[in-house]
Write the structure tokens for this entry.
Amino acid sequence: MRFFKEINRGIFRDNPTFRLVLGLCPTLATTTSVENGLGMGLAATFVLLCSNAVISSLRKLIPDAVRIPCYIVVIASFVTIVDLLMQAYLPSLHQSLGIFIPLIVVNCIILGRAEAFANKNPVLYSIADGIGIGIGFTVSLVIIAFAREFLAEGSITVWGNLAWKDIHNWKMVLFILPAGGFVMLGLILAFINRLQAWAAQRHGETPPMPLDMDCRHCSLCHFGK
């Protein structure tokens, strides 16, 4: 069923962080703890899901000349909802994520899905796309945050009081710094690319070159061609 294929594609084949390498600003800035990464991912997923559904349902009514401003208005509305809800019910997380919650409005992942997918597909599939991309983004944030927090702090903070402290007594402070985010992302991307090369070799295929794995070659850019 295409609905579940779209979800699976967003999580794996077109993962926004590990495959398309998009949305790196919140990825690198908010992955200092698993709680922050999970919170940012869930917030982005909510905005993706809702904005995709609304934009898809209105796609035949929005004039092409003003479609981008209309997308931004829709996205900003749902970001405002998320921002106010987090400020009311999760003040500590809201304070920790800071400016990166309002900046979801200009996140290239969300605007890109609106333009490349929701604008061209029915509501049901656009919802599936929002769910898949949102889960993929959340999972990638949690993976990066898990590695950074574990190596730098020796702890894992899942949510609130659900945390493991003092897992080890050696700390690699680099990974909690901004530069550490780049290093960890690069290591994970290198590992994923190596796994893809091994998988291709096992099936007798030519391993993909790095330039064949960026956002210009994802399925959405060639959708309908």
Summary: The CA atoms of residues 28 and 182 lie 7 Å apart. The mean pLDDT is 86. The chain has one domain: 2-222.
